């Protein structure tokens, strides 16, 4: 139910490392790819929702939005702020695969890429295997989507960034999105079945090159990945900005965060929780009943200063939209969500090594209770490592706060990408990654779980 922020960006093998895309899609720009700069740094160029524009992401976490100009240059703005950052980019001819990024020369990293269609749970899914060039065995990570409706094949930058780090990637469009068939859903079990099918397809395509294989995903993926790993074991699971509480509790925790971050005390919190309860009643009725209670609370508290800050994960829509609109849109937006799904039984008994990466300032999927639960599981013997970035929100993005309280994301934290790289390659973490607080599972615990 929590949103995944896609801040990133058909059969064949493409030698130069470019990615094939559907005709007419926003990702047809031939400059899309991962580039190695002359100083050794990695920069990825990916698609945006604006067809003419591009987005760059560096492995240090910095990012910007690129706009083309008639002289062949591209100018950049910082993160998602729209504010110029002084970076200029120029590309060579598409066949040459060159880039000049902020005065540094670079070349596109070549990959072995195979696009495919495979069977999920009753649907045909579109996928892609991206491997580093060569014949050696490499670890493979299957990218599991969140609750977004966008195409992972078009927009996930990790399908290029990881292979440039020596890691294979299998990426696929969620059912009902992009080039995949079926109806969009947030049914975790059904999505777990699709993820298991993706692992099987990745192994089939990779053949002898397949080494360790596991999942990486965010948001909703935090419910889907462990469930899939419990049904059909893999070597590792990486969850970003996911939750160890139910989808219903997520909305409640988000409302609590709304009030706490504004400095309101227990008296206001009690009133806000009345709204959370009324919202839950509507959700549990499949959007059919409960509107009278919510309307009464809106009339009772609507003019109080704290009320405008009640957002939650779902409640904001119930408060903003008229009842007839909620009844129409709700079942579509939250199709199949198991509202009371408790992930803890799976996590208590999952032997797969896991890395959970959380943002302390996540207002969409607040991390405090999840962090507490995960550390408790680690102490109880589960092979779980936890990393909490203190200044990051949903999507593991650092941000600026405007005077009205709105947020503008600026970058991923330093150490975010290298943390995932190390865990996929070696199954363990280093001593530090940027300013993240690490709760690493003891090596013996992780090693034991892999046998």
UniProtKB/TrEMBL annotation:
<dbReference type="GO" id="GO:0016787">
    <property type="term" value="F:hydrolase activity"/>
</dbReference>
<keyword id="KW-0378">Hydrolase</keyword>
<feature type="domain" description="Serine aminopeptidase S33">
    <location>
        <begin position="139"/>
        <end position="224"/>
    </location>
</feature>
<dbReference type="InterPro" id="IPR022742">
    <property type="entry name" value="Hydrolase_4"/>
</dbReference>
<feature type="signal peptide">
    <location>
        <begin position="1"/>
        <end position="22"/>
    </location>
</feature>
<protein>
    <submittedName>
        <fullName>Alpha/beta hydrolase</fullName>
    </submittedName>
</protein>
<dbReference type="InterPro" id="IPR053145">
    <property type="entry name" value="AB_hydrolase_Est10"/>
</dbReference>
<dbReference type="InterPro" id="IPR029058">
    <property type="entry name" value="AB_hydrolase_fold"/>
</dbReference>
<dbReference type="Pfam" id="PF12146">
    <property type="entry name" value="Hydrolase_4"/>
</dbReference>
<keyword id="KW-0732">Signal</keyword>
